[in-house]
Amino acid sequence: MSGYTEGIIILLCINAIAAMGVSLLTGFTGIFSLGHAAYMAVGAYTTAILTVEYGVHYIPAILLGGAMAMIVAYVIGVPTLKLMGDYYAIASIGLGETIRLILENWQSLTRGARGYPGIEGYTTLYVSLGFFAVMAFGMFNLIHSRFGRAFKSCRDDYIAASLLGFNTARYRVLSLVLSAFYCGVSGALLGGFLSFIQPIMFDMIKSTELTSVVVFGGLGSMSGTLIGAAVITLVTELFRPISQYRMLIYGAVLVIIMVLRPEGIMGQYELGPRFFRMLKNRFTKESSEKEGEPS
Amino acid sequence: MDTFLQQTINGLSLGSVYALIAVGYSLVYSILLFSNFAHGGFLVIGGYICYFALKSMGVSIWVAGFLSLLGAGFSAVLTERLAYKPIRERTNVTLYLLIASMGMSIVIENIFVIVVGGRFRALPPVIPTHPVHLFGLATTSAFDILSLLAAVFFLGALQLFLIKTKWGLAIRAAAYDLKTAGLMGVNVNLLISIVFFVAGFLAAVGGIFLSVRYTLYPQLGMITIKAFVAAVIGGLGSLPGAVVGSLILGLAEMLTAGFISSQLRDIVVFSLLIITLLIRPQGLFGKNISEKV
Amino acid sequence: MMTATPKNVVLELDNLNKFFGGVHAVRDMTFTISRGELAGLIGPNGAGKTTIFNLVTGVYSPDSGHINFLGEDITFLKSFQIIRKGVARTFQNLRLFPRSTALENVMVAMQQHHGYSFGEAITHMGKWGKKEREIHLNSMDILDRVGLAERAHQESGTLPYGMQRRLEIARALALEPEFLLLDEPAAGMNPEEVNELNDLIVGIHEEFNLTILVIEHHMDLVMEICPHIICMNFGAKIAEGNPDEIQEHPEVLKAYLGEEVEE
């Protein structure tokens, strides 16, 4: 395999891990965040500092990076997740930017805005595939469990959910903390892939991208999220030679998807029997409607 | 004391520019109930129109400013027609509008990156920036005083428009309930266009003053996040809230810069947001909306 | 009407008051529901019936007074804590999860009594398989009981209205409650469906050993199935007793006739 292909596969894994985290939060729990790149940053910096300054082996360091993102998310989430809708979205921008600014200004720990070089290149093909496989396994199992149903009911109707005995506040925090773990690990892997991290890599544009991938794939569909992450990563790579048009196309695609198919590629369905049943129903319905039309 | 007075004036001046942006953003929110992230794009459009009118056409600031405000207003209407109207006519999920607006914001920003390039441009010196001594108490710049006055003028004009005109009344009615306003015979599409025009128009005023303050570049629109924060602190959808929130934010920013550290001003801004929302989740002037069960 | 001794009291409202702005939505409300009762709460539109349900289930907190459930003060507990003590309810304006299937709607409630750990959830090991099967089978049983087994895999939002009402009852039953609150279960139904619903309510009352409180706007249903009726108007209790007593009560007649004239 060429180095280029290998690089793309690693990047796919890294992006897919973060996207799964955001998908759990936004697609399954209905919490719209525009600051999740900050949790990637926390994971990336924690792991970089642990491996470079303290010589910790990269596997525990990556997990600790994820854990640190969880802790930060928990401390932030308990008070702020009482906010709903656009209020939380705007607050999450503030939270994300604050974390980034702290990383930029805490020179002694993070070396500031110029970035943190010299990270060991621990994110090999097998490491990234391994993390992706394990984390995707856990995530798909989770959404097909009582927790998945609980998250979805908090998303669809939090009053009905609390009147079915769910502690909705706790599930919201749990969802945030888990999504932060996924983003933290993803950030840690990104650091090991690039050997260099910088606070500006984790700005609001990155957060927007994470959320867009999830919307593109379909809110409430984990397989859609993976497809969305793959498509967006590949398209981004494809357009790298004409990078000045890349962002323009990316923005236009977002608008066009919202106008033409706002439910994303997969709608709320997983790639499975129910999705195909839905497709079949749709096509048979459309053709019967056409037949019914007066000519 | 000198610094305090000076930073207070600067803060009010910056806050009043935020207010111009926040009011438009809040106005759109009050009608369509979504955060229009493309709002920053209108500001950038206004800034560039003003810049090129001054540079290439050699017109006076009055003409350039007028063109800029009209241009930004119409771009806002165009954005709504192209990107938001098809969505809002089909569903009432405001999340889709939010994401489309993020897309539009990226599109507008990158059109400028491609067409005019990403470099920083200074507006020709059409707005005086020389120092002004206030009764020997403090020194500030003419620019700060002018932007404060301009903001007061335009916000006053907006207030008159909303109170005295037929369309102003319709907009206030639609802010309570868009559907009912439609049923009462208000032309909803025209009303939404007017709202976007006003929002773009005011954003361009802010854009001109911001491009004098910070120079002009395609990402200048990012500064609207501060205005969003101000609107949320004030209470989403509330216009007095947007103004008060903006002034608080401008003051907090300038006082932090003057007395603590310029680097901490953004952290202070965002902390202010979080603290306000924790104490009053609906913002200072927001309606306390609880769902009917 | 059964005499209430402390032992068999399920729900006890004690001088409950609730204001919304200047509106006195619930006024000095006091009543008790005993174990095994099938009681009705009636009154004209806007009398405050649903507000009582919202107070009991913790959606709102009362401004004064107390609510006891099985001898325990639940006045200021949160909704989910009250539900976990054995209360379940339905809603006047259906609150199903419309994009989920009928079965999923019931499973969401059923899982409250069939827990397993987070570790088992992400690995699908340990008790996961056994518990998920239980949740699935028991949910199907309940759907079958309300006559919706054939519709189990249909998205609940696409079900006919009467079925959605029954599905909500099924979902409430899946919580395995001791006390069930039904908020206008017959709203929007035709007479035939109302008859079926009567049978269903009386049936589950015996079968599941439930205590039930039904809100109804229409007197006929309540008169037919509820031996104990509380009638309220303008937030206050105006009468309480058996159907005969209620039917002859002058205040009740006034409340209802007054309303009918308005309509």
Strand content of chain B: under 5%
Can you tell me the CATH topology of chain A? ABC transporter involved in vitamin B12 uptake, BtuC
Write down the secondary-structure element order of chain B: HHHHEEHHHHHHH
Please tell me the total number of domains of chain A.
1
Assembly type: heterotrimer
User: Helical stretch count of chain B?
Assistant: 11
Alpha-beta classification of chain B: mainly alpha
Task: Characterise this structure.
The complex is a heterotrimer of chains A (295), B (293) and C (263). Chain A has helices at residues 3-28, 37-54, 58-80, 85-105, 107-110, 125-143, 146-156, 158-162, 168-194, 204-217, 222-238, 243-260, 273-292. With 295 residues, chain A is mainly α. Chain B has one domain (2-117, 138-279): ABC transporter involved in vitamin B12 uptake, BtuC (Orthogonal Bundle), CATH 1.10.3470. The longest helix of chain B has 31 residues, at 2-32. With 263 residues, chain C is an alpha/beta fold. Chain C has two domains: 1-86 and 177-263, Rossmann fold (3-Layer(aba) Sandwich), CATH 3.40.50; 95-176, P-loop containing nucleotide triphosphate hydrolases (Rossmann fold). Chain C has helices at 49-56, 79-84, 102-110, 118-123, 128-145, 161-174, 191-207, 219-225, 243-248, 250-262; strands at 9-20, 23-34, 38-42, 64-69, 72-73, 87-89, 179-183, 211-216, 228-233, 236-241. A six-stranded mixed sheet of chain C has the order 6-7-8-3-9-10, sandwiched between helices. Chain C is globular and about 60 Å long. Classes of the chains: A mainly alpha (295), B mainly alpha (293), C alpha/beta (263). The A-B interface holds A 32, 79-80, 82-83, 86-87, 89-91, 93-95, 97-98, 101-102, 105, 159, 204, 208, 211-212, 215, 219, 244-245, 247-248, 250-255, 258-259, 262 and B 29, 34-35, 82-83, 86-87, 90-91, 93-100, 102-107, 109-111, 113-114, 222, 225, 228-229, 232, 236, 263-264, 266-267, 269-271, 273-274, 277-278, 281-283, 291, 293.
Write the layout of secondary structure elements.
The complex is a heterotrimer of chains A (about 300), B (about 290) and C (about 260).
Chain A: H1 3-28, H2 37-54, H3 58-80, H4 85-105, H5 107-110, H6 125-143, H7 146-156, H8 158-162, H9 168-194, H10 204-217, H11 222-238, H12 243-260, H13 273-292
Helix pairs in contact in A: 1-6, 1-9, 1-10, 1-11, 2-3, 2-4, 2-9, 3-9, 7-9, 10-11
Chain B: H1 2-32, H2 39-57, H3 61-90, H4 94-116, E1 131-134, E2 138-141, H5 142-164, H6 166-176, H7 178-183, H8 188-214, H9 224-234, H10 239-259, H11 265-279
Antiparallel strand pairs in B: 1-2
Helix pairs in contact in B: 1-5, 1-6, 1-8, 1-9, 1-10, 2-3, 2-4, 2-8, 3-4, 3-8, 5-6, 5-8, 9-10, 9-11, 10-11
Chain C: E1 9-20, E2 23-34, E3 38-42, H1 49-56, E4 64-69, E5 72-73, H2 79-84, E6 87-89, H3 102-110, H4 118-123, H5 128-145, H6 161-174, E7 179-183, H7 191-207, E8 211-216, H8 219-225, E9 228-233, E10 236-241, H9 243-248, H10 250-262
Parallel strand pairs in C: 3-8, 3-9, 6-7, 7-8
Antiparallel strand pairs in C: 1-2, 1-4, 4-5, 9-10
